[in-house]
Design a protein that fits this description.
- By secondary structure, the chain is of the alpha+beta class.
- It has one domain.
- It contains three helices and 15 strands.
- The strands form two sheets. Strands 1, 3, 4, 5, 8, 9, 10, 11, 12, 13, 14 and 15 form a twelve-stranded antiparallel beta sheet that branches. The protein has a three-stranded antiparallel beta sheet with strand order 2-6-7, with no helix packed on it.
- Helix 1 runs antiparallel to helix 3.
- The longest helix is centred in the last third of the chain and has 21 residues.
């Protein structure tokens, strides 16, 4: 048993990456293939609070394991970036994901192309407790998919005062195994159908947000760590049997 555990530990250190990989589009670029010029990369990201039209529909992430892409009305869109906020879709509200009659329904999708990943935490920004009219809270939706099946949808409500902070809002596990995440602005009917009491005249066209950061782990890594834990538990049981 000790030999088995030793082999498991060695395999874990050799084959398993760090427990959580960071994908960051805000503050410091991380997990994006090519990176940003200020970090020795080649992608023309925003370097400050200004908005940059990236002129690309998608970027590779995590050494080719994942892809982030922009969509408008189900068709390909163009990504935008603001270092203090994160990724958006270039269109009606050029630095964020929004839903308007002008540009249509915008999405940012992150797909895990080579294997499913466990998602632990997700942070969005520029989501405030009142929209530009000063009356309605802003909302964001994150849909979790695996093998084309919708597993769950998380709804985030803005809590920071408009333009007084970054508009941070976060989702934190339990961790969920997915192969696709979809970020979008929900309708009032969708929120009410999910059990939220939406007061006032919530207008999804006035909600918008940027995708900032997420932490993930490839499924094989999580499996190896689980096997290591079982091995240690087995040794303890044998010792005291």
């Amino acid at each position: 048993m000790k030999r088995l555990i030793f082999i498991t530990i060695v395999c874990a250190f050799l084959a398993v990456p760090a427990w959580a990989d960071l994908i960051s589009f805000a503050d410091n670029i991380a997990g994006v293939d090519g990176g940003a010029p200020k970090y020795g990369g080649t992608v023309n990201w925003s370097a400050d609070d200004s908005t940059v039209n990236l002129n690309k529909q998608s970027y590779s992430l995590l050494g080719g394991d994942a892809t982030v892409g922009a969509y408008v009305n189900g068709e390909t869109g163009v990504l935008s970036h603001r270092l203090t906020r994160g990724l958006g879709v270039y269109g009606g509200e050029p630095d964020e994901v929004d839903r308007t009659n002008v540009s249509g329904v915008e999405h940012i999708n992150i797909t895990f192309d080579t294997m499913p990943y466990y998602v632990h935490e997700i942070e969005v920004r520029s989501l405030f407790d009142t929209d530009t009219t000063g009356t309605n809270a802003e909302w964001a939706a994150i849909a979790f998919y695996k093998e084309a099946v919708l597993l769950q949808t998380a709804y985030l409500k803005g809590s920071e005062v408009l333009n007084t902070g970054d508009g941070d809002a976060s989702w934190t596990g339990p961790s969920i195994l997915v192969d696709k995440l979809v970020f979008y602005v929900p309708t009032k009917g969708e929120l009410e159908g999910a059990g939220f009491n939406i007061s006032g005249t919530y207008d999804p066209g006035l909600s918008e947000f940027a995708v900032a950061k997420l932490t993930v782990t490839p499924a094989p890594a999580a499996l190896m760590l689980g096997m290591l834990g079982l091995g240690v538990a087995g040794l303890k049981l044998r010792k005291y049997a």
